[in-house]
Structure formats: structure tokens, C-alpha cells
Protein 1
Amino acid sequence: MTASEDLRAGFHLAQFNVGTLRYPLDDPRTADFVAALDPVNALADGAPGFVWRLVEEGQADATGMRPAGADVIINYSVWESPEALWDFVYRTVHLETMRRRREWFERHVEAHLVLWWIPAGYVPTVEEALERLDLLRSQGPSPRAFTFSSSFTAEEAAAHEAAAHEVVDEEGAAGAEPAVL
Amino acid sequence: MEDIEAVALLQDPVRRRLYEFVVGRGREVGRNEAAEAVGVGRTLAAFHLDKLVDGGLLEAGSRRLSGRSGPGAGRPAKVYRRSGVERGVSLPARDYRTVAGLLAGVAERAGLDREVQEAARREGAALAAGAPCGDLDALAKVLEERGYEPVREGGAGEAREAGQGGGGEVLRMRNCPFHAVAEGFPPLVCGMNLALLEGLVEGSEGVRVRMDPRPGSCCVVAEPSKNNED
């Protein structure tokens, strides 16, 4: 295993995206989307490289959680690599629901999907997902919050974080170590 | 190597047949297999195949063709497959990709998926007016001309095992003619492509198209429509 593969094995990719519903989930105009939820989630759970997805307690998915707004549904998952996530999102029947997104969701004026690296085994929180999305929206892509088209490697994220720590150490304010990159 | 030099490599008829053979197989091809298919000696085939690798048209790898491993398995054989690098020559110089990427980006941000799909459906129907695609064979011919590289796949058993329903054969496309733009905006461009193909088969009772994305190929398949009424 090379140093880079070794580093990569220690990290997983977190994915968080938001979508503003045009109509409520129980509206007939959203019925096809709702019908696709269970099969597509099952497909994700069995997809190569899938690690974790957010599910509301006692529910099959996270569509009832609305931390970003009453009509904004969230999708939150962790993958072994960007390639695994890409292949699931765009190279499975999931693409069929993406193709019809404008029937069910408002167009996004701001970034709606954010990616970042986390230590393998760590279960990320909704709060930090919202922070990462805010970071992407306010400062553009960085190793701490990026997109498919502006991707960063786990190595780049680690280097970025190490550099940030050095600055903190020099200022004598070390100790506030973040749990994730 | 510049694009024009890479493309010029195919002027040699043997080299061109070798290239087309490797591309047509859709998998890794060994030197012996390629030489036999084209009807030249192994050494000559190897020379030309390596020229194509130098030009970035093919990629070389190594594989134990015997399926054995460990001592006695022999040296891995050199194998070839099509390169992911795109080569294009336009005289005079044209740059439609930049235009396509810019327009796709604007359509993406404006949320114009459905408008794009509607335009693509009309375009497909207009294309079909000149070359009707009433069955799988006719559609395959049109798709071949448009660069999709259609191949027939799936006997009855294979499709059923894969959970595809139907049970009949499908036409799968090895090449996405819109690859670079589709990678940048998959839902927009793949949705446009599906609508274009829907337009092509519109009004036909013999064939239908649907999305069935797989890694490394076009996301649409075509199939005889009678297989989908069960």
C-alpha cells in the first residue's frame, strides 16, 4: 500500500445535500419521488463503497428531518471514496430521479451539495453538515467543503488542516482540535 | 503528440483495423487475438498496437491470459483497450465543447432541465422523420451513425437474473457521444440524451428506451417494447 492509499484508507467522504420541495411529500405531484425513496435507498445501502446514511429514528429515511427549513429535505451519507459516491449518484437508477428533479424540487440558487473528508469510522452530525454547507456557500470550495467539480483529496484536506493547526499552535491556542477534517 | 498526429496514425490500414477491432471488443484484447482478427503476424500487430498506445488512442496493460497465477503461470501478456483520452481534429479550428459547457452550466443554474428535455425530444423526432427507428435494428443503425456504439446484450436468462424484468435482449450503448459535458452536468445532459432518444423512437410501437445507467457506458438502453408490458 502506498502512503497515499494508506492515508485514503483512513478517511471516508461525507456527502450532504439539500433540496427545496415544490410541493409537500404527500402531494400527488411528488408521488413518483416518494415511491422511489425506498428502492433507491436500498440500492445505496448495497452499493459498493457505501458506508452510512442518515436515517431518522424509527423511520426508513431522513425525509422527515427538516433542519434546513420546513420545506427543505436533506440527504446525508458517507462513502469510501468520491468515485464510489459518483457511481451511485450518476451511474445507477438514482440518475433517473435526478433527471426528474425539477418536477419535485426548486432550482438551487446556492450550492446544494457539499463534500468533505472524515476519519473512517466517525459518524458525522447534522450540525457539522450545515456548517460545511455554509462554509461552501460563503467561501467557495476548499479542502474543508467542496463539490464533485471542485474536488480535494483526503491528503489535501489533511495538509490543509495541519497547516491550520500550526497557525493555531503558534498563537498558543492549541487544544481545540476539530473532530473532522 | 498533437491530436492531428494521433488521428493520422489511423491512416495506415492495418493500424486502423487493429484500432477498430480493439474498440469493437469493448474489453482488453491481447496481441495474439488482435493479430489473428486482423490477419497479420503477431510482431507486426504488436508494433502497430504500441504505436496506437504512443498516440494515446489505446491504453496498454498486462494480464495473465491463462488464468493461472504463481510460478509456472508465465509472464503476464500485454493487453490493449481504448484510451479514455479524446482526440479531435477540426479544420478550420472549432470549439463546440466550450460552447456546450458554458450553455449547460447556465441551463443547470437556471434549472432548465425540462426545457432542455423538451427541445431534445423535438430534435430526436425531427431526426427520426428522415430515418424512422421502428425496431431495434433500425434504431441500432441510427445510433451507430451517431457514435453511440450500440451492442446487443442479454438473452432471456441474463436479463431476468439481473432483475431487468423484460427478459428480452436490449441495445446497450458503449459510447456516450456527449461524455465530457455529461460528466460536468449528469442529470441535465443524461436527461437531455434520454429525451433525444425518446424523440427518435416516438410513435414507434416496436421499441422503447429507458434509463439504465452503468459505470463506463451511455446511461440509456433500448429494448423491444413488447417485453415491457408484463
Protein 2
Amino acid sequence: MTRFLDNVAMALGTLRANPLRSLLTLLGIVIGAGTVVAMMSLTEGLRLKVTTDFAMLGPGTFQVQKWPAPGTFGHRDWRKYEQRRPITREQGEGLRGLPHVRLVSIEEYPNRPEIVATREKATRRNVEVGGVLPDYLEANGVAIADGRFITDGDVALGRRVVVLGPDVADLLFPGRSPLGEEVRLRGVPFEVIGVGQRQGSILGLRSKDAWAMMPWPAYEVAFGRNANNNVALVANTPEDMPKAIDEVVTRLRRLRGLSPGDENDFDYYTNESATETLDQLISMIGAATFGVCALALLVGGIGIMNIMLVSVTERTREIGVRKALGARRGRILAQFLFEAVTLSALGGLLGVLLGAGVAVGLREVMSVPTSIPAWAVLLSLFTACGAGLLFGIYPAARASRLDPVEAMRTE
Amino acid sequence: MTDTHEPLISIDRLARHYFVGGETVRALDGVSFDIRHGEWVAIVGQSGSGKSTLMNLLGCLDTATSGTYRLNGADVETLSDDQLADLRNKEIGFVFQTFQLLPRASALANVELPLIYRGVSRKERRATAEQALRSVGLANRMHHRPNELSGGQRQRVAIARALVGEPSLLLADEPTGNLDSQTGEEIVRLFGELNARGHTIILVTHEPRLAARCPRAIKLMDGRVLGDGPGAEVAALQGPRAVGT
């Protein structure tokens, strides 16, 4: 322990003797470690945000539909989806009663966003509307802030009622409760019975709160009956989801008359699959960042080696004296290795602070979602120390091999 | 053998040859003598006489080409580099002409150095080093750096550093060479006191006047012993080449 403290004290003493030179030497390490922390904070923040923002279904839920899952990128053969037969309400009903499926929410949507209006005001054409059943609420992870959601009675009696997303409610009824008020969709009047809880937006781009849901029969008065339906299914438990998916796929294939060799003519997705593609993209950014950082750390390491060689040359006499006074080779080696590692650890620390500062700054000033992952901080520090150790070996070995008589003779 | 006490230093036909550009330089060419505990011996000779080579060998900083060197019971020529380092740390206190203090370290830190390599705890190290500095009269200069000290003070720091580990041998290489005559005189007197307290001292010098003040002197010329005896007599010896010029 005494030896460890002695080495650290000696290393810090050298840093204090040449503060500016030490700082300049560290620049490579600082930039490398800083980039790791900043970039990883950015991608981690993005990943967290994507996971919550794209969570459009409730827990343990998956959705079956004709169209591909939202959140997928890349080339799609849209004609293929166009030509698929619709998923009918009867097929949806046929999915009830499977052993691992608890709820079946059959939902119908028009082809595009709609306008919701009162006598005085109207929304833009950006409201997602749908004809749904009471199970919609749980299957889509929606909560009610005010009033109530659609009930079986609303469906059975064909009541013309609507539940609004908070964006719609706030726009049409600013500062007051919309409950019991009348809104119109495609000219058909509906009574507002509830308002949903705010869910925020997808990466700040698209609001998840601009919606209006009606019971089936009332929806069909305004929009007509849709041939195609989306079916959201809730497994008994989240762990049961794979089994539930198997059961649903098998049953739906039979209901749609597919032969064993046929491809599925429908898609299904979960919250996880919706974010998979984005996760891949983020991972690619991460890998690229690592490349940049590895390079910066290499440059930084060479900087450390250079300065350590200079340091050994400058202190040849000191090394000679230390050896004459009884320092073994290992002690000299350890002293210079410690110095290199202390130097690079300091660089790593400065880099982490810099990167964290950038991450916090982006979040506070520009509202970019960032989250500093602990592993990125540790990784930066360890790699910086590793670079110091690796590139410090050669100068330290050179110092330890000096001949004391020769070394003391140099000026 | 009638002698029950082994001498501190015993060298026998010690030689050190350098091979430079295909030629052999016999810097030291078969030197033998013993030094007992408590002696104060000058090794004197002109530059090129081999006294620096001998001093490096005696200081375990260099190893001989042939011959044997026993220091306090250890056969020096059989030891590894690390063992030599340990031996220097334990047995030898160096005092150099150019002081060889670490410029960025305080007097106290300089004196602590040998104890660091002995693994002494910080607390004990500090106390021992302070004691050593007090013993050479630098009680109120402990936290000064070498460039804040006079030449004589620097050499006292170096002597404190040499003494701090209680070595069996004090090896001084031209300790007064960089000092004015008055300060040099103080340092020589300090050596006298240390010798009176029982320290064994080897003083390497080119000055016959300094050698003459030591109880014993060994005069080297061309890598061989020219004379070995009381300081005043040996210092006055003239080499064969000097005769008649």
C-alpha cells in the first residue's frame, strides 16, 4: 500500500511539474473518452425513448394486421400488401377462446386521419379515429383521464359516443371539460364520454394523443363498414406471448384457408418488434462510434508514449540517482507505468466529464433525449487506463534498463 | 587465520576492462586491498588513474571484469542487478561531487528516497529523514528545494541522504569538488565527525591535500595501486612518470 501511494504521489508530482504539456498530451485520450460517453449517451437516450415512444400496445399484447408493422424501415413491396385479402371481423371473432389468449380487440380504421369538429372549432386532418370494443383500452395501453371508456352497453345499444385523445379535447374545449359536449365526425354528431390520458409523442415528431375512438356501430354510421380490421390480442401473461402468437397464427391461417406451404398473408407485431429496426440502426451508430473512439484512443496512446519517452530522457539523471540509491528495475518500471496510467486515467476522467457535459447540455438546451449509461463511463475510463498501460510499457522498460553510472553522468 | 573479524571490504585482483572500438582499455588492472569497519580511507589519483572505475565497483554500480569483491560478507560479483540494487540500498551511502539531488523534491523528500526503496512506512520514513537532516545541521531547511539551498547545504542534504539508511559504508566521490574552500573544509570536518562516530568512509579524490588528511590513503595510477598507507605519506607519492619532469 505504501508503495502504491508512493507511486501515485510521484506520478502526480510529475503532472504538476508540467501541467500544460500534460494536458496537451492528454487531448487524444480526452477526445476519445469524451466521444464514447457523449455518443453512447445519445444512442442510449434514443434507445430508451424509442422503446417507450413506440410502445403502442399494452404489455403482453401483439397485433395482427394486413399491413406491415409500424416502425419498420426499408424497401417494401406495397403491392403485395395491397393484394392481401382483408382480415374480416368474423376472422377476428374466430380468434377468441384460444388457451393462451385473454383478450381480443377487433378494431377498424379508415384509410387516413380525420377531422373532429364542434360548431366553433375543428382540428386539422390529423386525428386517428377508429371503431373499437371495450377491450381496446387494455390492449392498447391507454388510460382514461376523465369520464369513462366505451362499454358493452354502448356497443349493444349503438350509442353515438366518442372518447377523445387529450390533444383533441384540449384543442376543441380549451380550459373546460368536454364531457357531455357534442363533436362531429364526417357530419355525424357524437357525445363525448371520456378523455384519454396523455401519452406524449414519438420522438417529438408525432403526437400519440390525437385520436378519437367510437364503438363499432356508431363508427359505422359515420364511416361505413370497413372490410379490413386490426386485431390486438393480449396473452394470459407476457411470458405466454410466444405460445399465444403460435396459436393465433395457426388459427388465422386456417380461418383464411391457407395451405401448409403458403406464406402468411398477414403480419403481426409486438412492442419489441416495432423497435427492432430502430435498435439495429442505433447499434450501427454505436459500432461506428467505437471505431472512432478506438482511433482516438490509439492516437492518444501514441501521444502518451511520446511524452513518456520525453519524460524518460529528461529524467535520465533522476533515474540514475534512484537506481544508485537502491531502486530495483521493477520499481523504476512501476514508477513510469504508474505515471503513464495516471496521465491517461486523468485524460479519461476529463473526457468523461466533457462527454457527460455535452450529453447534459444537449438534453437541457436542445431537448435531445440523452441518458448517460454507467457502462460507457466505466468503459471509457478502463480503455483510457488500458491505453496508458499499453503505450507506457515501452518507455518504462527503457527507463528501467538504464545504467545508473551512465544515467547519472548525463546533464 | 588470526583475524576473527572479517574486513568490511575485501577486494582481490579486481580488474575492469572496457572494450572500445576493438581495443581493450584497462581502466582497472588488478587491484587488491581490505578496508576494515570504522576506517576512513582516501582513494586518490589523477584523472585516468582508475579511481572513478574503482569507486563504481566499490559502490556496486558496476561489476568487475575479473577478480573478487566481498562487501560485508557478500560476494558482489555473483549478484544479479536487483540484488545489487538491494545491496546499494542497504550497505552504501553515496555522496557525489554534483550532489545528485532530485531538483523537484524538497530536502526532506530527497533524504527519504533510500527509505522508499527499503519499503519503510511513510510516517517512519519522515521521522528518520528529519533526524538525519538535523544531524547534519539542516533542521530549518527541510522543506527547501535544492535550488533554494547553497552548495554546502546541498552537500549536507546529500550526506544526510547517504546516512539515513544507516549503511555500513559512506562512499564519497569528490565531495568538495564543487564547493569553495571554506565550505569544503566544513564538509571534510563533518566527515571527520562521522568517522569519529564509527562510520566507515571512503573518499575518492584527485587532491593529494585532501587525501593527506585521511588516516589512510590508497593511491592509484594507470589502474594499479601505487601506494597504500597513512594518508600523509601516500598522498606525497609521485608516480614513475612524474619523476624527473
